[in-house]
Amino acid sequence: MPFPPFSRASVRRRSLLASAAGVALLAGCSSAPDPAARNSALSSADRARARAARDSAALAERYAEVIAAHPGLAERLRPLRAEVLRHVQAFGGASGSASGSASASASASSPASASASVTPSASGAVPSSASGPASASGSASASAGASSVPEDPKAALKGLATAERNLADRRAEALQDLPGESARLMASVAAAGAVHAYLLTEGGK
Known about the structure:
The structure is a single chain. By secondary structure, this protein is an all-alpha fold. It has 8 helices and no strands. It has helices at 5-31, 35-69, 74-90, 95-106, 109-123, 133-147, 153-174, 180-201. Helix 2 runs parallel beside helix 4 and helix 7 (153-174) runs antiparallel to helix 8. It starts with a helix and ends with a helix.
């Protein structure tokens, strides 16, 4: 007994629907994100942001050392250093440690010398144990930053400009391997670093 004409059309429709369902299923499987790859990308971005925060904190410390060694440059450098500290926070770091070390290095010459001059007059001779390793390490750490800063203010500015430019170049390369938001942040901070390098060299002419 032959099939009615509508049966063949029905079979054809069922075949087309089955094919479409298969294609949709394959598309859904291929577009599903790989959790391992996503976690790897996130951890890579987190590591890059943590490294960038440390780099900015170190740069802020270098600004503080130059300001302490050359107070005449403070008005010019403080706004740039404040922006570097904002970069630390943008990358998820804490700017408190950098600002704390900056205030310590900036005031190392006055409070430390004052306490050193007051203590002997108040208590007589200072015991040898009190002026041993602790005081030696304190004076060494207090003068370490100043000794690394060039005596010439122009050379000190050039060193800061070089540090800003090198860091901006490294960040411009690193952002190519970062996902969207982290890449945009890295690009923005790299551009700011390039502007800082310009202001430290050409901006003062």
